[in-house]
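Researcher: Let's walk through a ligand-bound prediction step by step. First, I give you the protein sequence. Second, the SMILES string for magnesium ion. Third, you return the three-dimensional complex as structure tokens. Ready?
Model: Ready.
Researcher: Here are steps one and two:
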Amino acid sequence: MGKIVLKANEICKSYKNGVNKLNVLNGLSLLIEDGEMITIMGQSGSGKSTALNILGTLDKPDSGNLEIKGIDTDTLNNKDIAKLRNRDIGFIFQFHHLLPEFTALENVLIPTWIKGEFDFEAKVIDLFQTLGVADRIHHFPNELSGGERSRVATIRAIINKPCVLFADEPTGNLDEKNSTKLIDLLGQINRDFNQSIVITTHNPEIASIGNKQYKLEEGLLNKV
Ligand SMILES: Nc1ncnc2c1ncn2[C@@H]1O[C@H](COP(=O)(O)OP(=O)(O)OP(=O)(O)O)[C@@H](O)[C@H]1O
Ligand SMILES: [Mg+2]
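Model: Step three, the predicted complex:
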């Protein structure tokens, strides 16, 4: 068994809409080990984004407990959680949220600047080369194709060597060719850097690349 990097225990989450309460997560538990590729399939509205946001500390559960690298996140204040998130968690979203006024290179370097490190440029240029976007380094996001944007967002997400990379329907707005490229890229990152990755998807073909595959049903993760 690899080292456990994230442990979620009995996570519950509901949303209130006026007098109605919608239970989305009903005691979800998950262990993530170093280097694992985990896929989570679920229908629209099943709670995939809710789950990923909580596992990635962007949102808080109503009850249950989240440990990241052995640290109980309940013991941290908001500032320390933000620090832990910047250092240990990577996100790729369906819409990539690249900052429009910064170049591809700057977008990727921002998380390292936040960490107070300023000597990453050579490493980033290297990564752009490995991932096939070296000649787009000084382009602004609106000068990149959808597939190139998703590659840049992926490099940004892994630059701080997070212990887990979460990808929430990362191929949602890409055509088939670019979806395949991005999924291949995530596989390459998983193998080459032993990067733990969690991908949510509607697509059974994408789900099949997981070495652990789950379905999110009725607020719980069931092994496929
Ligand atoms: N902030 C919110 N307030 C109220 N209800 C919400 C909120 N966010 C999500 N929901 C509801 O919670 C349920 C789960 O939403 P979530 O976004 O996690 O689903 P999902 O599996 O990611 O769906 P999709 O595949 O469409 O992205 C949905 O029914 C949604 O309408
Ligand atoms: Mg979603």
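Researcher: And what stands out?
Model: The beta strands are 4-17, 20-33, 37-41, 63-68, 71-72, 89-92, 164-168, 197-201, 212-217, 220-223. Residues 48-49, 168-169 surround magnesium ion (ligand 2) (CB under 6 Å).
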